[in-house]
Amino acid sequence: MSRPLEATPSADVKILALDLAQATGVAWGPAGQAPEVVKVTLRKKTDDLALGFKNIGYFLRDRFVFPANIPDLIVVEAPLEGGQLGAKQIMSGWGLYAAVEGVAAVYSIPCRAIHASSVRSHLCGRANFGDREATKRAVIQRCRMLKLIPAHCDDDNKADAAALHYYASCKFAGSSREFFLTP
């Protein structure tokens, strides 16, 4: 059974946000604060999908060795369903999500899948900015403005993870980062 998130004051809620993909964006830290943001390569394009599933499990296990690194909540970008995606992309997304859910269950950590459009709407005011590249640029720019990622960061994986962390801080931990707008 998962620990109840509501029992923890928002300032003490530790959030792990994952933009799951071959190159996974990771944002970690307390709600209401700028997260530590990194990118983890789970597999190469030519590697078997199962390697990515194993590596996300190993990454989380190794991170949770120290009790201080165990989050109160894990949020992931919800896997995509169909559309323009091929079977391999769909299987990869759902496999990575299942692996995270499995590890989260072992540690009794609540895990929530959030649709990217919900995160972008919350962060940027709308979900779509035209084409895919324009939408990625908008998320990166907004994350920079809120100081969720460094000013020099152009990595959309890190920005997406930081945006997820921001969304979870606001929606699940009752915390806001609007104070980052000051110089």
Mean pLDDT: 87
Q: Beta fraction of the residues?
A: 15-25%
Question: Which sequence of strands runs across the widest sheet?
Answer: 3-2-1-4-5
Low-confidence stretches: 1-9, 178-183
Radius of gyration from the CA trace?
A: 16 Å
Largest sheet: 5 strands, mixed
Count every beta strand, where a strand is a DSSP E run of 2 or more residues. Answer: 5
Overall shape: it is: globular
Order of helices and strands: EEEHEHEHHH
Description of the structure:
With 183 residues, the chain is α/β, with parallel strands linked by helices. Helices cover 40% and strands 16% of the residues. The chain has helices at residues 49-63, 87-106, 116-124, 132-145, 156-171; strands spanning 14-19, 23-30, 36-41, 73-77, 111-114. A five-stranded mixed sheet has the order 3-2-1-4-5, with helices on both faces. Mean pLDDT is 87; it is low at 1-9 and 178-183.
